[in-house]
Amino acid sequence: MVSVGTVVWLSSELMFFAGLFAMYFTLRSTTGGMWAEETAKLNFPFALVNTLILVSSSFSCQMGVFAAENLQPRRTGRLFQFSRWGMTEWFLLTFVLGAIFVSGQSTEYAMLTSEHVTLNSNAYGSAFYMTTGFHGLHVIGGLIAFLLIIGRAYAAKKFGHFEATSAIVTSYYWHFVDVVWIGLFLVIYVLK
Q1: I want to staple 68 with a disulfide (CB 3.0 to 4.6 A). Which of 8, 133, 164, 184 is the partner?
Q2: Which residues cross the membrane (predicted)?
Q3: How many CB atoms sit inside 10 A of residue 22's CB?
Q4: Domain that holds residue 148
Q5: Residue 108, domain CATH
Q6: What pTM, to 2 d.p., does this model score?
Q7: Tens digit of pLDDT for each residue in 6-48?
């Protein structure tokens, strides 16, 4: 039941981001040359590295799901025996990668602000900060969810299917956030 509820909720989130994409394309089609001028200020290599960090977090998240499905909350070997890691280690790595992504976004915002691209500077600034900002808030929500799942794994007397299901639905959300970012990256940074 939790999985079905999560999928329904993610469907509403999909519609929310579809609205943001529609806003972005509408503003882009009505502002003409300003878009080319403003997108030239983007740091593509920096954004690409930041994107690769977020995408790699999906892989570590999925490894955590595999461990949760095997009812293995914690590692059974040494710290650098990755094949023996449990859900908490993989989810902690996912959390760190997600936090690095958010820090990268903050750094990019600072760089763009120094280039006079702000939320209220023009239509491009509004579209850029609205789409990436709401995505960033969703990433932060996912980071909080990972902390709650990790805490629940440590608090549980016996790690069972209830805890595993919570980990699995958290991964649904994380993968969704990653896929949305890939779409945003392609639209904002590649299709300038």
Answers
A1: 164
A2: 7-27, 47-68, 89-107, 127-151, 172-191
A3: 10
A4: 2-190
A5: 1.20.120.80
A6: 0.91
A7: 888 888 899 999 999 999 999 988 887 888 889 999 999 999 9
The crossing angle, in degrees rounded to 10, of helices 161-185 and 87-114 is: 30
CA atoms within 13 A on the CB side of 55: 12
Contact residues for 66 (Cβ-Cβ < 8 A; gap 6+): none
Distance CA 181, CA 47 (A): 11
Q: What is the number of residues in the chain?
A: 192
Question: Of 126, 121, 133, 107, which is closest to residue 43 (Cα–Cα)?
Answer: 107
Give burial (CB, 10 Å; 0-12/13-18/19+) of 127: buried
> How many structural domains are present in the chain?
1
Amino acid type, 76: T
Residue 108's Cβ-count burial label (10 Å; 0-12, 13-18, 19+) is middle
Q: Tens digit of pLDDT for each residue in 76-96?
A: 888 888 888 999 999 999 999
Phi-psi group of 116: left, alpha or beta (phi > 0 → left; psi -120 to 50 → alpha; rest → beta): left
